[in-house]
Backbone:
């Protein structure tokens, strides 16, 4: 009898659990449209902050770009365009900028955006950036009238518009009162002018956005970047935080999620087998840094030997099995950034001259001491590249060891802020694209972890900041790359795309350093 | 019994103090700097130093330790470096899914493990015993994450009766709640069931071979009564021990399963905090896990006393 009762209870629990299921996903317009009202994006990382200025993680940017807009934004080709600004002007020596604001733009709280909000937002941005980097130190935005703001610099700053469209920690425009009530940790309310407004956030689970019906764009078409009219096609968007890549893949396959980001390169075969859509999200530059403060790479000839021997194709093939998701390039801004792509830089990489490299090693004072390659388990593709590099360096007579650490320890090993760093010799890592190549992390890292002499490029860098002529600026940028390579300061050898996938029902999905929610829709 | 309990309680307090010291040393000698991780790769040395001072990380470790202990005694576990949330609030939030997962997994482990162990002991030498032994071996050999992926592939991807990921609180409906935890609970519970089966089997075999069981059989006592009343009761001590241990393991060691099934539990919180070197969360979370361990051990000791009078009598001497 007891067995029967137990069996009945178990059956009841199972039936209950089977029947009460399914993620709610309504239909547009009460079922009259064939598109879903709600899409779910399985996102790989949960940001520590949703303050668009404080957040240095790509996750903060991807999510909050839907809520906030800047005065300026980047289009898909990395050109700077007006977004909340109607137009902007600069004086001849690029020391003063005046921004004219669009009228009638409303924040999600219903208030119209005016110069007070813009000044508060941009000074909030400048304050934070100047405490972290060397951005805009000392300069303040000022209100001219209700729809005009300006900023003055002591030195020419021709690249300033590019600094305003930084990828991470971007210059979002928010209401003044939100800035005024911000704590040390950042803003506590998420109110912008973008096509989606903040609805709710459950830590560890999701960030929910709902369509902002009163959104007014700048009046030109968005070409797949951040700039232009951001027309929301779906009422509700969930960023579901799913850390395991296999789970994200399985979730898109079952339809639990519509889109998933950062799928492992090792799972591309499954993506194809399931018949899912895949997208390349080009957003990373990859470099090889050699420690010039200590050890054998203080010798320029040994740095050159490394550049001569490495085979970028072999390294990338080991890291990313599908060549759709990487591109071998020596330009510090790859082909995906046409405005800054330097074709001449390609001559410096992919030489694969083992004999010449070997000779440089033999002619040097190298005494067989251990060369430490440092890498991080947080990025398996970097580990794979480092392993191939180890073999390539062994082939020219270097005694190479690989040390693998978690991300936090790797950071600690690389940045010791001392005049000499004895923790490593070579490190490979990729860094996000930035609109301004001069504000790219790579240039900072050449100095901060590789200890290269940045004075060598200070002249063309200063010239880039002082000229408003685009052609002249590009020539300076070319010269900078030439100097970096000729002095063997760093080896830029690839661009990398992360893999975003979606069900076959998803349409109009664009990636621009993360999936863009506006425009995207999913058929029922 | 009171003296016995008192001794156990003092031991518990001492264990927790040692855990806090060990934990503090371990997190602080790991070397990585939370300030650097927080500020990103473009941070200036001055900004990093300012952040270290703001977080109180520029003080010697023992000063930080006593400050933390002092706050702890006032019921304050501190604030997360990253999230601007109180550690205690985060722990409460992340504790619930882990507790639910551990309870369901343990139930699965006991419901399957104890009867299988008894059956295996009862049928020693027969085919059913060999089959159970083989199943147990397989259960112990398959890593939980692999079983989890297999269960997900079969039940979520192929026949689509359970969700791939996510946790639903019981307040969102009991059906949804159970459904979200069936696969992760099975992935965790089955290997623990194998362990409990083995322990139950060996404990039962030892008891079934004892003199008093032979005497009972000679006196013609019913085999069912011998098995369930006399043998099982006397085999309970190791079974209680292994059940207690497995619950503690499930509680503190579910991080991989939590990650695969996207459950925001304590394991995930600790893992992410270790990656970011968010010391305040690591310290709080590990303290909670250690507390669960010692409380379970305390409960197991109490159950020993209830189950075996000799233990509590020994305490009175």
Residues:
């Amino acid at each position: 009898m007891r067995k029967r009762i137990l069996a009945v209870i178990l059956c009841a629990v199972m039936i209950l659990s089977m029947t009460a299921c399914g993620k709610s996903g309504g239909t547009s317009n009460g079922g009259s449209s064939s598109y879903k009202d709600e899409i779910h994006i399985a996102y790989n990382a949960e940001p520590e902050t949703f303050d668009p200025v404080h957040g240095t993680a790509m996750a903060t940017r991807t999510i909050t770009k839907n809520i906030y807009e800047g005065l300026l934004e980047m289009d898909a080709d990395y050109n700077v365009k007006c977004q909340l600004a109607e137009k902007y002007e600069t004086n001849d020596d690029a020391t003063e900028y005046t921004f004219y604001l669009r009228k009638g733009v409303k924040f999600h709280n219903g208030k119209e955006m005016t110069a007070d909000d813009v000044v508060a937002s941009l000074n909030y941005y400048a304050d934070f950036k100047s405490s972290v980097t060397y951005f805009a130190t000392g300069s303040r935005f000022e209100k001219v009238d209700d729809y005009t703001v300006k900023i003055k610099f002591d030195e020419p700053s021709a690249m300033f518009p590019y600094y305003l469209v930084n990828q991470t920690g971007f210059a979002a425009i928010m209401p003044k009162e939100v800035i005024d009530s911000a704590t040390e940790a950042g803003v506590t309310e998420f109110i912008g002018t973008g096509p989606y407004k903040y609805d709710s956030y459950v830590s560890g689970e999701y960030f929910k956005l709902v369509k902002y019906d009163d959104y007014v764009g700048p009046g030109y078409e968005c070409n797949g970047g951040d700039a232009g009219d951001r027309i929301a096609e779906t009422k509700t968007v969930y960023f579901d935080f799913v850390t395991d890549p296999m789970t994200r893949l399985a979730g898109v396959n079952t339809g639990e999620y519509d889109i998933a980001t950062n799928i492992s390169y090792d799972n591309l075969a499954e993506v194809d087998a399931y018949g899912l859509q895949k997208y390349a999200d080009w957003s990373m530059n990859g470099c090889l840094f050699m420690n010039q403060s200590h050890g054998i790479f203080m010798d320029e000839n040994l740095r050159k030997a490394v550049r001569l021997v490495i085979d970028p194709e072999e390294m990338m093939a080991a890291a990313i099995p599908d060549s759709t998701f990487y591109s071998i390039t020596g330009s510090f801004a790859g082909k995906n950034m046409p405005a800054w792509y330097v074709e001449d830089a390609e001559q410096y990489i992919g030489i694969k001259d083992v004999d010449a490299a070997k000779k440089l090693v033999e002619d040097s004072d190298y005494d067989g001491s251990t060369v430490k390659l440092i890498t991080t388990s947080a990025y398996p593709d970097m580990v794979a590249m480092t392993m191939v590099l180890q073999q390539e360096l062994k082939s020219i007579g270097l005694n190479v060891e690989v040390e693998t650490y978690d991300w936090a320890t790797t950071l600690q090993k690389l940045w010791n802020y001392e005049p000499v760093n004895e923790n490593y010799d070579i490190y490979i890592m990729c860094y996000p694209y930035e609109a301004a190549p001069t504000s790219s992390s790579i240039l900072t890292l050449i100095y901060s972890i590789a200890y290269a002499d940045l004075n060598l490029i200070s002249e063309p860098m200063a010239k880039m900041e002082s000229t408003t002529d685009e052609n002249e600026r590009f020539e300076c940028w070319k010269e900078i790359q030439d100097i970096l390579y000729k002095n063997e300061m760093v080896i830029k050898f690839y661009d990398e795309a992360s893999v975003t996938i979606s069900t076959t029902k998803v349409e109009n999905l664009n990636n621009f350093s993360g999936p863009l929610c506006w425009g995207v829709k999913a058929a029922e | 019994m009171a003296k016995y309990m008192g001794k156990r309680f003092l031991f518990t307090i001492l264990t927790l103090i040692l855990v806090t010291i060990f934990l503090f040393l371990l997190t602080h000698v790991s070397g990585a700097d939370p300030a650097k991780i927080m500020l990103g790769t473009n941070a200036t040395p001055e900004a990093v130093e300012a952040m270290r001072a703001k977080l109180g990380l520029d003080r010697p470790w023992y000063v930080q330790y006593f400050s933390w202990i002092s706050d702890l005694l006032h019921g304050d576990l501190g604030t997360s470096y990253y999230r601007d949330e109180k550690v205690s609030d985060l722990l409460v939030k992340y504790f619930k899914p882990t507790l639910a997962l551990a309870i369901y997994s343990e139930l699965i482990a006991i419901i399957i493990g104890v009867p299988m162990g008894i059956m295996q002991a009862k049928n020693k030498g027969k085919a059913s015993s060999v089959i159970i032994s083989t199943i147990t071996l397989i259960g112990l050999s398959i890593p939980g994450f692999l079983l989890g992926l297999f269960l997900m592939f079969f039940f979520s991807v192929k026949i689509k009766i359970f969700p791939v990921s996510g946790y639903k609180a019981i307040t969102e409906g009991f059906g949804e709640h159970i459904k979200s935890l069936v696969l992760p609970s099975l992935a965790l519970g089955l290997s623990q069931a194998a362990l409990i089966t083995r322990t139950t089997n060996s404990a039962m075999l030892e008891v079934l071979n004892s003199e008093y069981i032979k005497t009972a059989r000679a006196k013609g006592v019913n085999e069912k009564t011998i098995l369930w009343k006399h043998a099982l009761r006397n085999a309970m001590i190791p079974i209680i021990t292994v059940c207690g241990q497995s619950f503690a393991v499930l509680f503190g060691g579910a991080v991989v399963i939590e990650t695969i099934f996207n459950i925001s539990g304590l394991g995930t919180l600790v893992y992410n905090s270790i990656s970011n070197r968010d010391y305040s969360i690591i310290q709080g979370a590990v303290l909670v896990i250690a507390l669960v361990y010692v409380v379970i051990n305390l409960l197991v000791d109490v159950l020993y006393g209830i189950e075996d009078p000799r233990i509590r009598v020994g305490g009175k001497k």
Notes: The CA atoms of residues 168 and 177 of chain B lie 5 Å apart. Chain B touches chain A through 55 residues (CB under 8 Å). Chain B has a mean pLDDT of 85.
